[in-house]
Design brief:
The complex is a heterodimer. Chain A has helices spanning 25-36, 45-56, 61-71, 75-82, 104-108, 111-122, 165-174; strands spanning 96-101, 135-140, 152-154, 157-159. By secondary structure, chain A is an alpha+beta fold. In chain A, strands 2-1-3-4 form a four-stranded mixed beta sheet, covered by helices on one side. Chain B is 41% helix and 11% strand. Chain B has a four-stranded parallel beta sheet, sandwiched between helices. Chain B has a four-stranded mixed beta sheet with strand order 8-7-10-9, with helices on one face. The chains are: A alpha+beta, B alpha/beta. Chains A and B meet through helix 2, helix 4 and helix 5 of A and strand 2, strand 5, strand 7, strand 10 and helix 13 of B. Bound molecules: flavin mononucleotide (FMN), iron/sulfur cluster (SF4) and FE2/S2 (inorganic) cluster.
């Protein structure tokens, strides 16, 4: 019996970006400021990884190396953090990450139907990205909006009470 | 009510009270701004305490109030604070647990979104009490949309001299750092949270040492839930006896319950501790939707044993819920209707725990995996009595043998369902199919119907 829980998996290989990556001066300054907000600069790994993800698209081997270099922290430690948290993307994603909550309260309110509808509308399975690079569809766990499910987080924003397929379609179509 | 940061239900006045405590803030227009909050007397209690009271006095009031942690474990807050060693030369830290990721729980989000300065005032008081000069708010990654709002509140408060050096001329200094997680339920566990805050994989530590003695960067640290911290200003302002006017002796005060499931009016309700579960459901949440019959209740977030409808008069306070065989937990009450298959629901939760297991200890890492697989088999009509007994054994083996409470959280609901719904489990074994899914269509109709207005 293997270990398949994503968080429990260790030694995940990071993908290559295919080229070296480095932070520009502004980002380096921002990372220095992050480090200054904590008693120990190692605490800035998570905010720096967020910045790297925003800047480089996903956390490749090279992006992780850039964070390690900027904070002067061993690369394997940074890689360990990057591979533990589910919101750090280890592969390229679409412009909009559509995250459907599948946990119990939302499931009681129709999360399965919502996911099925979106999957059909976008023509992709959960975990996949549309060929035009616009949408990534994902199943996620409880988003702390359980009273107003089923809910969907689009990038940072949460949309709730998505019961009506037409309103879901409208939402998807409204995304740039 | 439609709020820019979410759809929130109506604010109701708890039975027997003139007004709610925590939710009382929401009645003040503009309370989310510094001016609005200060206009209603906000920060006065903290400023007064910093200047005129000793830190120990604050701890004593909170201790005497009997406030118990609202994050799940219900540990007495004042007592936790008093464990911080006084003579220690090391810096001390306050960490607010805003990771809110226990399925069924969505109260901290509403509290922070609607009254961010109350959280900051609570942080000021708690930090002063334990003499911490650096506090942290650990916000779950999915709450990134709340970060600008909290950062703004903090900037405004700092500009007004409420944070930083020599606050209000008291000589007390305090800095606050907001820290954004990145998606991991386990980071709600306090020691995993501290590891995460130190820039590591968020995996629980062995206890003892407890954080109050050796926490963040090996320094004395108090970790408290958002709701706990937001309660503090009211208690310090009005006194311990005032807080004890509500709720039973050992669970005083009010508590915010998050209600979800097929009820007419889901949402957060602040009620007096010790009210029966039936009142939360019927009086506040408007009862089950028409066509949906109550089958089970998970009273304290997904990690606790299930209750059955015959236990609906169970009082909602820490000890009464424990006496009924469950736990008050985070107060996330999930009402499960008869259109739901208990095996399917358990499978959903077990998948969650398997996915969120941090992998540090074997019983949980391997056990959650086994349990999910067995539940799958049973739900799919491929299970036999042997699978049910293996499921029970695995759950029993996890219980009490895992490093943190996540293992127990995965096992307890399963054991309670095996005990309370034997017929429904048996049906899966004998009929080789699910009892409920045969009625799926009518269930879908109820789900899609508009809830009754209450
Ligand atoms: C798996 C797990 C998840 C937890 N998640 C949370 C959470 O999201 N928020 C929270 O406040 N406490 C959570 N807790 C409880 C914390 O460990 C801790 O007891 C709490 O933050 C202490 O604050 P309190 O005393 O104010 O309740 C969790 C515990 C476990 C074992
Ligand atoms: S019980 Fe589970 S989540 Fe907790 S330390 Fe062990 S493996 Fe990690
Ligand atoms: S179960 Fe979906 S938000 Fe909590």
């Amino acid at each position: 019996m293997g270990v398949t829980g994503s968080r429990a998996t260790i030694g995940v290989e990071l993908k290559s970006a295919g080229k070296p990556l480095a932070f520009e001066k502004d980002d380096r300054d921002a990372i220095a400021q992050m480090a200054a907000r904590y008693p120990d600069r190692s605490s800035a790994v998570m905010p720096a990884l967020w910045l790297a993800q925003k800047r480089f698209g996903f956390l490749s081997k090279e992006a992780v190396a850039a964070v390690a270099e900027a904070l002067q922290i061993p690369e394997p430690e940074v890689a360990g953090v990057a591979t533990f948290y589910s919101m750090y993307n280890l592969a390229p994603t679409g412009r909009h990450i559509l995250q459907v909550c599948m946990t119990l309260s939302c499931s009681l309110l129709g999360a399965d139907a919502l996911l099925a509808h979106m999957s059909k509308k976008l023509g992709i399975e959960p975990g996949e990205t549309t060929p035009d690079g616009k949408f990534t569809l994902r199943k996620v766990e409880c988003l702390a909006s359980c009273g107003t499910g089923p809910c969907l987080q689009v990038n940072e924003q949460v949309f709730q009470e998505l019961l009506d397929p037409a309103s879901v379609d409208k939402l998807i179509e409204s995304l740039p | 009510m439609k709020h820019p940061l979410g759809n929130y239900g109506p604010v109701v006045t708890p039975a027997g009270m003139k007004e709610p405590i925590l939710f009382g803030d929401f009645a003040t227009a503009g309370v989310e701004t510094l001016d609005g909050f200060r206009g209603a007397g906000g920060y006065q209690t903290a400023l007064d305490a910093l200047k005129n009271r000793k830190p120990e006095e604050i701890t004593e009031i909170v201790k005497a109030s009997g406030l118990r942690g609202r994050g799940g474990a219900g540990f007495p807050t004042g007592m936790k604070w008093s464990f911080v060693p006084k003579g220690s030369p090391k810096p001390k830290y306050l960490v607010v647990n805003a990771d809110e990721s226990e399925p069924g729980t969505f109260k901290d989000r509403e509290l922070m979104a609607r009254s961010p300065h109350r959280l900051l005032e609570g942080i000021l008081l708690a930090s002063y009490a334990i003499q911490s000069h650096h506090a942290f708010v650990y916000l779950r990654g999915e709450f990134a949309f709340l970060e600008p709002l909290l950062a703004q509140a903090l900037d405004d408060a700092r500009a007004a001299g409420l944070f930083g050096k020599n606050i209000g001329g008291s000589g007390f200094d305090l800095e606050i750092t907001l820290h954004l997680g990145a998606g991991a339920y386990i980071c709600g566990e306090e020691t995993a949270l501290l590891d995460s805050l130190e820039g590591k994989r968020g995996q629980p530590r062995t206890k003892p040492p407890f954080p109050a003695v050796e926490g963040l960067y090996k320094c004395p640290t108090v970790v408290n839930n958002v709701e706990t911290i937001q309660s503090v200003p009211f208690i310090v302002k009005n006194g311990a006896d005032w807080f004890r006017k509500w709720g039973p002796e050992k669970s005083p005060g009010t508590k915010v319950f998050s209600v979800s499931g097929l009820v007419n009016q889901p949402g957060n309700y602040e009620i007096e501790m010790g009210l029966p579960l039936s009142q939360l459901l019927d009086k506040y949440a408007g009862g089950m939707r028409s066509g949906a019959k109550l089958k089970a209740v998970i009273p304290g977030g997904s990690s606790v044993p299930w209750l059955t409808p015959d236990q609906i008069e169970t009082k909602l306070d820490f000890d009464s819920v424990a006496a009924a065989g469950s736990l008050l937990g985070s107060g996330g009450a999930i009402f499960i209707d008869d259109g739901v298959c208990v095996v399917d629901a358990l499978l959903n939760l077990t998948h969650f725990y398997r996915h969120e297991s941090c992998g540090k200890c074997t019983p949980c890492r391997e056990g959650t995996h086994w349990m999910e697989m067995l539940l799958h088999k049973i739900e799919d009509g491929e299970g036999g009595t042997q699978d049910v007994s293996t499921l029970k054994t695995v759950a029993e083996q996890i219980l009490g043998r895992s490093l943190c409470a996540l293992g127990d959280a995965a096992a307890m609901p399963i054991l309670s369902v095996l005990q309370k719904f034997p017929d429904e489990i048996d049906h899966h074994l004998t009929a080789k199919r699910c009892l409920v899914n045969e009625r799926r269509e009518s269930v879908e109709r109820v789900r899609r119907a508009e809830p009754a207005t209450v």
